[in-house]
């Protein structure tokens, strides 16, 4: 978003490749009774797994009775011990809905909210209170995308941990929405609903050859090529083309690092402004010409004083305010707070942790980095590359997908010197050169021809404000994707 959002990024999801978190449980339960539930897709996530069958390639052994007690005929369900019980903390924070399918919408289980508020490392310890349960569309970026009642309300089926939000979708439209689960009007969780054609047929490029994953029993193994895939677009993009009719909105949504909820850019790649509307009201970009009966997204921003900026409290703040950017101010509220007073190092939105010094805050690991945020003395050898592990509870990617990770971490510096080798980034090219030397040689500057360009960089094609064609970089098919507005 132009001159509006600080420290936000677009997200490109990677197939979940750790054994526990990569399951694709897009459950399509057949209900024996003829009622409204027949028209909806029941969704769950990462639940029951048999480790040996996983290694043998027979994935997603599901105990359906533990997911939905309304399914009356389970005779054809294959369940074999040993199994790992459902971990609802790993349930997704977003759902894909392809409007070409037969179902009319989604049933989104709310159990994750209860589990997170009770057991999560950072926000757990207090159960969700009793009270009036409601759900609504907080915002949608295409008017009428979700079929709602008065005040953008949605129906909640069943009660408590068994509750499910019924999300009827207008299948003639594409776009994004965030739905909320409330108790007595207060938000306790939210989910991103992404209505688009199938985004799962992406490419299989690997920058580093020996990417590994950790299994449930602690075993570490190489990830087979068959288990490695990218989405074909950024999270929230409604298409994957730079030239289609919808190309100007093909960049996707924006995220503050570590947060599960998206922020809509509210401006397209051709500088057309659009609004998000829902129970939050009508929200527009500050540059929009018409703000009648609308608010600027800036007005939703939450500023937290440094002395109050603690990770648990700020995570709760983010959950209860999904559309609000969060920034940390000095205690006198005179402006942004910085690490060690260095204006190059603004305090992250999540603040500080009583158990970690500032240099260890990466260990909060909100998006499940391979390194777990821990710095190794030697981080540039082949053997130092860390394995993928379970998907984070705050990961914004849909079921079966996850945020990609750099394979190691380093301490960095106040001047952002970074010598991690380029191929340790999932978006890197195939060279073990450090990032600092790579940029010193100006290899990151894309030239109009390949004259004088190293072999691992030949073939880059950049189309300003449209996107990137990386379909033949160094003779390798890497990627082809639209650009994001920034």
Q: How would you describe this protein?
A:
With 486 residues, this protein is mainly beta. It is built from 4 helices and 22 strands. It has helices at residues 51-55, 111-119, 311-320, 435-440, and strands at 8-9, 14-15, 40-42, 94-97, 105-109, 133-140, 153-157, 164-168, 175-183, 186-195, 212-214, 220-222, 255-256, 276-278, 281-284, 295-296, 302-305, 326-329, 401-402, 461-463, 467-470, 479-482. The strands form 7 sheets. It has an 8-stranded mixed sheet with strand order 3-5-8-7-6-9-10-4. A 3-stranded mixed sheet has the order 14-15-16, with no helix packed on it. Strands 20-21-22 form a 3-stranded antiparallel sheet, with no helix packed on it. The longest helix has 10 residues, at 311-320. The chain is globular.
Can you tag this structure with a few keywords?
single chain, 486 residues, mainly beta, eight-stranded mixed β-sheet, three-stranded mixed β-sheet, 4 helices, 22 strands, globular
Question: Could you say which overall geometry the principal axes of the C-alpha atoms support?
Answer: globular
Assembly form of the protein: single chain
* Spatial order of the strands forming the largest sheet: 3-5-8-7-6-9-10-4
Task: Please report which band the strand proportion falls in: under 5%, 5-15%, 15-25%, 25-35%, 35-45% or over 45%.
Answer: 15-25%
What's the alpha carbon Rg, rounded to whole Å?
23 Å
Element-level helix/strand string: EEEHEEHEEEEEEEEEEEEHEEHEEE
Mean pLDDT: 82
Please count the helical segments: 4
Distance between the termini: 4 Å
Unreliable stretches covering 5 or more consecutive residues? 18-38, 44-81
């Amino acid at each position: 978003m132009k001159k509006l959002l600080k420290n936000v990024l677009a997200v490109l999801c990677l197939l979940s490749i750790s054994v526990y978190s990569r399951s694709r449980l897009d459950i399509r339960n057949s209900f024996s009774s003829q009622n409204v539930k027949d028209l909806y897709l029941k969704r769950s996530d990462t639940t029951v797994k048999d480790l040996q069958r996983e290694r043998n390639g027979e994935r997603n052994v599901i105990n359906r009775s533990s997911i939905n007690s309304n399914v009356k005929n389970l005779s054809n369900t294959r369940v074999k011990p040993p199994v790992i019980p459902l971990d609802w903390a790993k349930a997704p924070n977003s759902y894909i809905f392809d409007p070409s399918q037969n179902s009319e919408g989604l049933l989104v289980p709310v159990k994750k909210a209860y589990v997170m508020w009770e057991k999560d490392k950072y926000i757990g310890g207090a159960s969700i209170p009793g009270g009036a349960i409601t759900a609504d569309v907080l915002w949608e970026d295409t008017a009428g995308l979700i079929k709602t009642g008065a005040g953008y309300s949605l129906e909640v089926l069943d009660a408590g941990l068994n509750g499910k939000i019924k999300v009827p979708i207008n299948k003639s439209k594409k776009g994004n929405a965030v739905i909320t689960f409330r108790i007595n009007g207060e938000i306790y969780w939210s989910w991103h609903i992404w209505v688009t054609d199938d985004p799962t047929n992406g490419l299989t490029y690997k920058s580093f050859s020996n990417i590994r994953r950790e299994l449930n029993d602690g075993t570490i193994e190489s990830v087979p090529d068959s288990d490695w895939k990218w989405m074909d677009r950024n999270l929230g993009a409604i298409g994957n083309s730079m030239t289609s009719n919808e190309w100007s909105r093909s960049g996707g949504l924006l995220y503050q690092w570590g947060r599960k909820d998206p922020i809509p850019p509210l401006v397209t790649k051709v500088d057309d402004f659009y609004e998000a509307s829902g129970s939050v009201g009508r929200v527009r970009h500050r540059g929009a010409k018409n703000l009648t009966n609308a608010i600027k997204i800036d007005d939703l921003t939450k500023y937290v004083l440094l002395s109050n900026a603690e990770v648990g409290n700020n995570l709760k703040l983010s959950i209860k305010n999904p559309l609000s950017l969060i920034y940390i101010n000095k205690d006198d509220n005179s402006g942004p707070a910085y690490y060690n007073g260095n204006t190059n190092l603004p305090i992250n939105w999540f603040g500080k942790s009583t158990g970690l010094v500032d240099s260890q805050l990466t260990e909060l690991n909100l998006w499940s980095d391979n390194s777990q945020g821990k710095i190794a003395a030697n981080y540039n050898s082949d053997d130092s590359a860390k394995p993928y592990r379970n998907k984070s509870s705050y990961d914004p990617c849909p079921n079966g997908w996850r945020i990609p990770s750099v394979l190691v971490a380093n301490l960095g510096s106040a001047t952002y010197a970074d010598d991690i080798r380029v191929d340790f980034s999932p978006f890197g090219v195939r060279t073990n050169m450090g990032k600092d030397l790579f940029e010193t040689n100006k290899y990151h500057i894309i030239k109009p021809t390949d004259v004088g360009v190293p072999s691992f960089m030949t073939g880059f094609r950049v189309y300003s404000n449209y996107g990137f064609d990386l379909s033949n970089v160094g003779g390798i098919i890497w990627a082809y994707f639209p650009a994001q507005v920034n």
